[in-house]
Design a protein that fits this description.
Order of helices and strands: HHH
Strand content: under 5%
Mean pLDDT: 95
Largest sheet: none
Shape: elongated
Distance between the termini: 23 Å
Radius of gyration: 18 Å
Number of strands: 0
Helix content: over 70%
């Protein structure tokens, strides 16, 4: 039997909540690779410095409630 959108949202939110900690750890672990990759671009020192500062202070946030609002809206398009 096919699942309803509401059932899919509940399942998706649960999956997102279960893997949120792992997603945050992975993103934080990738910060140095993001900075190194950007440093390899031909952009100038100001751009690179701004990017580095932004990545170092940025926080990866998981918002299951936002996902639960936006995903069904997108699937209904």
């Amino acid at each position: 039997m096919a699942a309803t959108i509401d059932e899919m949202v509940r399942k998706g939110v649960n999956k997102l909540r279960n893997k949120a900690d792992s997603m945050i750890r992975s993103w934080n672990a990738a910060k140095s690779r993001m900075i190194a990759g950007y440093d390899a671009t031909p952009f100038g020192p100001t751009r690179k410095s701004n990017y580095r500062a932004g990545i170092q202070t940025a926080e990866f946030r998981v918002d299951p409630e936002k996902w639960a609002r936006n995903w069904p809206a997108k699937m209904s398009e």
